[in-house]
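In this section we walk through a basic example: taking a raw amino acid sequence and producing a predicted 3D structure, encoded as discrete structure tokens. The instruction is simple. Fold the sequence below.
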Amino acid sequence: MTDSRVRDLGWDDSLYEPRSPDGPGQRAADEPADPHAASAGGGRGQQDARPPKRRRRRVLRWTAVTLAVLILGTAGAGYAYYEHLSKNIRKGKRNSGESHVAKTPTNAMNILLLGADGRNSEENLKLGGAKYTKGDPPRADVIMLVHLAADRSNMSVVSIPRDTRVPIPKCTDPETGKVFPATTHAIVNESLTRGGPGCTLATVQNLTGVYIDHWMTIDFAGVVKMADAVGGVDVCVRQPVWDHPTPQQPGGSGLKLKAGTQKISGKTALQWLRTRHAFESDLGRAKAQHMYMNSMVRELRSQNVFTDSGRLRALAEAATKALQVSEEIGTPKKLYDLGMQLKSVPSDRITMLTMPPVTDTENDQHYMPDPVAAPKVWSRLVHDVPFDDNGGKKAKKKPAETGPAARPAAEIPVDVVNGTAGDATGTPVNGRARALVGALAGAGFGRAAANTTSQPSAATVLSYPAGEGAQGRSDALAVAKVFKLPESAVKESSHVASVTLLIGADWRDGTVYSGAADDGGALPRSAGALNGANESACMDVYRPYRWDPGLG
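The resulting token sequence is shown next.
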């Protein structure tokens, strides 16, 4: 096969080849260099009132997306097979809404996983649809933000409840050209109807301040193709559970299990993933989904799935037919590389949690982001701070620096760049670089200078040249001390010629850094954080849904 034909199939080694962790990042194919050019031209109560069939199968979608990517990450094959798989993949525009959130100059990666509830085929209708919704634009009933650390050592997955009230930006449907005006009062799952997955991406970017590199979505039919691929997953309930209709609450998933740990698959797995009443709330259901997901990953790794090429090829076939992805990763090679990166994270470095919510002040059937706790979650993602304690950064006290002393301040050149336009508004703070140059001059750094180049960034980063090694790091730490920047903001870079302070959107005023990630203390219980290696996790059952197995 010729090199040109290989490139036609998307075999682009430059996209995911190894690079410095602080490298320029992976800008989407539809994302211009100028971040300002990125713009593109019912509530929970109502949903719950719909027939119960509408809810079936939709909660399987998020597990199916991740399973599909894990499979693609292990299904190595020849070019001919990639050519075949490439014909299966459906693609869409990465961003179709107004969002100026900029990528922080690190190698961290963020992926939006969506479960769409479209019922535009007989197959989807049979799997969980109310017939009167056939033809309606799909909504995003499952929204998960996956953060893969810059060093690929850990991964965080944050669920956003589908009934969260958020602003939705102006979006343009990439298929029809229809323009949807911005709205400040909408439910987040409606964003998918206002311009496709790219509109949901813009909405979540603006909500979180986290630049999202890619999106993936799956519908009912895709779930069915993937749901039984694992062959059974261990789950646990502390009390016998029967999620059945009650006089107070109609509907129910039908889940009926004895207490303890047991392996579920097929219909029972579906029931587990859509159980809400027996687990008390949507937050409880999210925790049960996270438990299933973690168990599924452990199960895959314990089997011979990653070494059985025949089985992997069959699963890769199903995966490429099940997923729709943003166009910049729409080739088998790029999906393969992405899957390999996800698969490399150890189970004990995977953390799943839910956005901390509060009850919507206008409708108690909806949520809003907790104004105190939610920003702490988003800050950890922006600053690439893990949610687990298993990497040694928190569990062990870091030894004192043993490198060379910093050079005298007057001898250290410092380049200061204004990147404050890296938030959702895309509006910079004029004169910000000059203000911090003044602070440095007052501390003796006479060679500090403001760089007039615009480089929007969501987070503040202090870089030093890779070639300067320990000396460069010591010099950068001396600069960090002036502003009380955390050591985690100091990065080695092959893209700077001197110590460089990139002022992010997280530090818009003052000369003392105040945008540090919350890297200490426990998250609120509402986040439901669950570690991927936790095999003892077990769901409590809401008392009205407990049953006596002895009574049948």
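Looking at the output, two observations stand out. Residues 282-302 form the longest helix (21 residues). Residues 1-59, 123-133, 393-400 have pLDDT under 50 and may be disordered. In the next section we compare this with other chains.
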